[in-house]
Structure formats: structure tokens, C-alpha cells
Amino acid sequence: MDAPRWDQMYRTHGDLISENPNATLVAEVRDLRPGHALDVGCGHGADARWMAEHGWDVTAIDLSGVALTRAAARTEADARVTWRQGDLLSIDLPHQAFDLVSAHYLPLPRSEDHASLRRLLDAVAVGGTLLVVNHDLADLSPETRRAAEDHYLTPDIIAFLRPGWTVEVHERRPRTNPAPAGTKHTHDIVLRARRGR
């Protein structure tokens, strides 16, 4: 993953990013008992701040130092958020330590060992919840879709869940937040699963 590219994106287009939490996060998480949460690809931190305001202790990670600086500046000093720069492979994350692992529109790079995805799944505690929301690639042109499938894991990662996981939600939904300017994303794939013992 390319941190300078994401830094540049936040410098030039950061003002277009909503300061509101993802509506899917709010809908899927509001009834969960707060605990320790991992927000992967946190950006400006709207999701992390919402979770902290609702009793979660949050570790929020992002590749972009620019995004994290802005996120921290928008956060109350006593908020329960720890900001960390890096990705799933560069940050040392404790094994099965998070009651909630949330990833919204996270581009997981394709690799032979699916290392990033394995780290994402490994972070979920026994009894914890995984929430993954991604663009539905059906919204893209055939050429763009093929390029995305060649370089990234497809949005539907349910096939990678081993026995012991319980899928609680797995569906295609209309986007609740407006699509980024210049894109045609109209639907999301939402996966919420609980890790069993």
C-alpha cells in the first residue's frame, strides 16, 4: 500500500470526506456491548470518534499520517481513541484482542497467502464481531471491475471465514452515505460475523 498516495489524497480531497460516521456502522454496532474496537483504515476518524462516544475503547489505524493528524485534531483530549499509523501488516496487533473489528471500504491487497485478510480476522476476539463494508463491484465498468479483482480481494470475503464463525449479516445494500465525487458506487456488500469458541 502507498502511504504517500493516501497522504496526497487527504491533502487535496480531504474536505470532501464526511465528518459523520458510516451509517452502516451505526446500524450494526449500536446494540453491541462496548468493549475494545479496532477501526482499520480510519481516515479522518469519524467512526472511531462515534465508537468512543458510545463507550468503546478504540484503536484506529490508517496508512496516512495526514489523515491521522486531522483525526486527532478533531478528537476531544479525553476520547478513548489511540491513533496508529500503518497497515495490517506493519502494525503489531494483539492476537484475538478486539471485541469489534471494523473495516469500511478497505482495499485488501491480493496475495498468495492473503496475509492482510488473515491479520484482520486474527484480530477478532472469541465472541467478537467482524464488520466489513465494501463497494459492490457490480457497480463498476467491466474493465474497472477486472482491475479491482486482479489487485484486491473482492468485497465478498465470506468464503475466507473458517468453521467457528457465525455469519449474522451478509447482504447487498444501497449505499447510505453519498458516493465519493466522480464515482458510481451505489451499493455496498455488508458482512457482519461473530467469532465462536
UniProtKB/TrEMBL annotation:
**Pfam families, per database record:** Methyltransf_25 (PF13649)
Which terms does the UniProt entry file under GO BP?
methylation
Record keyword Ribonucleoprotein present: no
Does this entry carry the keyword Methyltransferase?
yes
Q: Where is the Methyltransferase domain?
A: 38-128
On the tree of life, the source organism's domain of life is Bacteria
Recorded GO molecular functions are: methyltransferase activity
Query: What keywords were assigned to this record?
Result: Methyltransferase, Transferase
Q: Which SUPFAM superfamilies match?
A: S-adenosyl-L-methionine-dependent methyltransferases
Protein name from the UniProt record: Methyltransferase domain-containing protein
What is the organism of origin for this protein?
A: Pseudonocardia alaniniphila
